[in-house]
Amino acid sequence: MIELTFIEHNGEVHNVRAAPGTNLMQAALDNNVPGIDADCGGSCACGTCHVFIDTSWMDKAGKPSESECAMLEMTPEKNEMSRLACQITVETPLNGLVVKLPEFQM
Ligand code: FES
Prior knowledge:
Helix content is 18%, strand content 22%. By secondary structure, the protein is α+β, with helices and mostly antiparallel strands. The protein has one domain: Beta-grasp domain (Ubiquitin-like (UB roll), Roll). The longest helix is centred in the middle third of the chain and has 8 residues, at 66-73. The chain is globular and about 30 Å long. The protein binds FE2/S2 (inorganic) cluster. FE2/S2 (inorganic) cluster is lined by residues 25, 38-40, 42-49, 71, 84, 86.
């Protein structure tokens, strides 16, 4: 199992464990982490699984696809740490990943 930490905008911390091969959005939903809406169910079509990942983890998280980048462009809170959680596969190199959640999903 992969250990992940989600931190809500209000600072509340959720330590969860996820099976390798799932995606970050599903790991949050499976563990009742609030703050991810995932309206499209993981199809990279809604942008409501927006999260912030420290830049030091970006290489391990993999590069965002063109469609993910396009979707992120529509996210008002986007910054250099932005990713869509449904597009990140949870694998062993991400063990210990810390994920910050935005105040709102748009
Ligand atoms: S769940 Fe819709 S873009 Fe990730």
